[in-house]
Amino acid sequence: MDYINVKKCTAKPTIPMTKEAFGPIPNTAIYWLAGAGFMINARGTIIMLDPLMKTRPDDPSRCETGALLKVKYPIDADDVPKLDAILYTHSDADHLAEQTSKSLCRLNPKMIGPPPAFERMARMRLDIDLLVSCRSKDIYEYPNVRIEVFPADHPWQLLNPTRQKRIFRAGDSVGFIVETPDVRCFFPGDTRLMEEHLSLSDINFLAFDVSLCTYHLNPLGAKVLANTLKDAYLIPYHYGTIDGPNPAMNGDPATILDEVENGYERALIVAPGEPVVFAGKKLVK
Q: In degrees, to the nearest 5, what angle opens at C-alpha 235 toward C-alphas 231 and 238?
């Protein structure tokens, strides 16, 4: 793993994930799955966040939502051998992808998300016994994993409110604090900066949203959050995956890291499928 090349805003070439990535390990490995997706292997417990892992059957150069890809996904959802839980921050298709969710459902993971995500999964006719509707401050526990639901604020519907079928409500989007024996992680999801973010502490790893969208952290909010969590390692996401003009899918980590305390030392610019390993609350790989 090397540090950021400030001139590149396209993800590094993908490293394919094999079945070994899902097996028992003595520590915690975090994988960026491209886009907004992540996977955690916490000593054999497998948690995914916002996975989008399938392409169009008729055009593998495009993800299942139709967007043109710059990089391949590290593993197809059909090839995932084990999964204990999926955490969905909200119901947008680039986070809760229908074909990916239907494929992963075969592994019987708990599928946890806020009410609009629960509703969307129910309409997909996923196994209702697997679906969990969550709210901020809810707690879920698995072997070697503790999950706390965190508030988020992502009212992208305000971009064109006259065309929306439903209003935005508080609690429609969430983030997650995921703690293992080896690392305390914060996955903010798609969110504007909130007062609650400024009270966070003891975070070792931050999923670092570098999107340019007004209804994400955006560069200013991302800088503030990274400087608030000044001891956290950072993996940028929402960049380098989709080939298109949508500001929500694009960003330049370097324009933010220039103003982040020790930003270039803390930023881990990984390829999709490349493990980042923590043990004893410290980065080891």
A: 135
> What whole-number distance in Å separates Cα of residue 279 and Cα of residue 180?
10
DSSP string, 12-41: PPP----GGGGS--SSEEEEE-STT-EEEE
What would the mean pLDDT of 81-97 be, rounded to a whole number? 96
Cα distance between residue 75 and residue 211, in whole Å: 24
Other CB atoms closer than 10 Å to residue 184's CB: what's the count?
18
pLDDT digits (tens, 9 = 90+) for 32-68: 999 999 999 999 999 999 999 999 999 999 999 999 9
Taking the whole predicted model, whether its pTM rises above 0.90 is answered as yes
The percent of residues above 70 in pLDDT, for the chain, comes to: 94
Average pLDDT, the chain: 92
What is the end-to-end Cα distance of the chain in Å, rounded? 8
Contact indicator for 52, 63 with CB cutoff of 8 Å = yes
Domain 19-155+166-188+270-283 has CATH 3.40.50.620: no
DSSP state of 117: H
Domain boundaries, the chain: 19-155+166-188+270-283
